[in-house]
């Protein structure tokens, strides 16, 4: 995790007056502890991660990524289930189009340096 950032689970990100999606995981700027905090602004978010389930497929694959990109969140990861094994799709924001570009698909091991160094054996996540 980069210095000055932390991972949080299921915390709203305010994208507009009526748009407050709740990513499964977000990497956000570390702030003083605030027990009353219920959301983050897009400028505070480095990465959002959505874990796709049957009930959330369209939201997690289409709706949420489009809105995160339009809000300027630079990195998005989507985690899918492929025959009981996690597959991670890694995206980076194209600022010219305000859309995400796929930069990698990871099956056995998620290893990347963007937006920060990560090396995770994905099969360890399902044990």
Automatic annotation (TrEMBL):
Cited SUPFAM superfamilies: Restriction endonuclease-like (SSF52980)
Lineage: Bacteria, Bacillati, Actinomycetota, Actinomycetes, Pseudonocardiales
Signal sequence segment: none
Keywords for the protein's UniProt record, in alphabetical order: Endonuclease, Hydrolase, Nuclease
Name recorded for this polypeptide: Putative restriction endonuclease
Pfam families linked: Uma2
Start and end residues of each Putative restriction endonuclease domain: 4-120
Molecular-function GO terms, alphabetical: endonuclease activity
UniProt key word Manganese: no
